[in-house]
Structure formats: C-alpha cells, structure tokens
Amino acid sequence: MIEWTYHLDVLLRMSVALILGFLIGLQRSKEDKPAGIKTHALVSLGASLIMIIGDYGHRFVSEQIDMTRLASQVVSGVGFIGAGTILITQRKAIIGLTSAAIIWLTAGLGLAVGIGYYFLAISATILVLILLHVSTDFERWLSHRQRNLRFIKIRVDQVSALAPLLDLVGEFGGKVERIARKETGVMKITIRLPAGSDRTDLLTGLVKIEGAQLL
C-alpha cells in the first residue's frame, strides 16, 4: 500500500515543476516570444509527470522498469514542440532557436523535479533567468550602439501577409531582425533597413498588404 507521504511528495514535485516552468515562461512572454507561460509550464509539468510515473513504476510495480528510458523519450519528443518555434525567413535567416532551446531545457527541469532533485532544477532555473535577463540587456545595448541603422516594427495578423511583406522588405534591401509570434497567432516583425534608406516607399507598399500594419 502506498503511503500518503508519497502522494504529498508527488504533489510537491508537480507543483515545483509547474512553478519553475511558469517563471521561465513569464520571462519569455515579456519578450513577446512564441512560447509563453502556458507552453513552458505545461512542458515542465508534463516532463515531471512522466518521470514520476517512472519512479512509481520502479518503486511499486517492478524494479525492472527503467526510468532513464522514459526520460530519454521526453528529451527526444519535446524536440517536436521546439521545432514549431523555429522559422527560416526568405533571406535564409534562422530565428527561434533560443525559444526551442529553452523549451528543451524546461523539459529537463521537469525531469529533475520529477525525480526529486530540487536543488538541480531550482539552480538551473535561476541560472537560466539570469542568462536571459543579462543577454537581453546586452543585446539591447549592442543594438543602441549600432549607428546608421533604421528599425521599424510591423504587426502581422494574417499568415498570408507574411510572404508579400518579406518580398517587400527584400526589395528595399531590408532584413528581418526578429519575428515574435504570440500564442494568439499574431506576429510582431522587426525590420532593419540599410543606412540612409528612405522608408516612405516601403510604408506605402505596406499599406497595400492586407493583414499587416505599422506599429
């Protein structure tokens, strides 16, 4: 018979996994990243759930159940979720790799909590949050240091507007710096224009694209 203390321990593991995933998702949501609070919290909680199932099976069903096999399936399976955040623009620029890496890492946090290694999971979460905060500020500092560059931000409400928008940007020698996709499907695109360029014609063409507007 399973003791009630084990059930409390399981509840604690799932709660910690949910909170850690929530914290990372909160930071990503503030940066308008495609995967936000719900995605990271669910990935962390789901990974801990799988690990707890393995722990339960090993303890109470059969010692022959290999917990590491379940963990390996989580690590490989979560890659499909991460792949959904990666985009390749028309100009062959790859974006979304950081979001994919963080989703993969969040699954690792859930696995650590699921097996009861709280110190590892909490320490890793703190390090990730520090890294994201410091790297974001550093990247913004570098952006402000770049001179003779012009940036515009565009909101895209329809996926069909993305292709003509990228074509328009390419005509004026622009480059997509960043695409942030929210869970609602709305995208915010940051465009970098060449030094000395006149964005008037680009904005005129933008008006003709349905589903895209200047921010």
Protein model, in words:
With 215 residues, the protein is of the alpha+beta class. The protein has helices spanning 4-30, 37-61, 67-83, 97-114, 118-145, 162-171, 200-207; strands spanning 87-88, 94-95, 150-156, 175-181, 187-193, 212-214. The chain folds into two domains: 4-143, no CATH class; 147-214, Alpha-Beta Plaits (2-Layer Sandwich). The strands form two sheets. It has a four-stranded antiparallel sheet with strand order 4-5-3-6, covered by helices on one side. Helix 1 (4-30) runs antiparallel to helix 2 (37-61), helix 1 packs parallel to helix 5 and helix 2 packs antiparallel against helix 3. The N and C termini lie far apart (61 Å).
Short account of what is shown:
The protein has helices spanning 4-30, 37-61, 67-83, 97-114, 118-145, 162-171, 200-207; strands at 87-88, 94-95, 150-156, 175-181, 187-193, 212-214. It is of the alpha+beta class.
SSE diagram, text form:
Blueprint: H1 4-30, H2 37-61, H3 67-83, E1 87-88, E2 94-95, H4 97-114, H5 118-145, E3 150-156, H6 162-171, E4 175-181, E5 187-193, H7 200-207, E6 212-214
Antiparallel strand pairs: 1-2, 3-5, 3-6, 4-5
Helix pairs in contact: 1-2, 1-4, 1-5, 2-3, 2-4, 3-4, 4-5
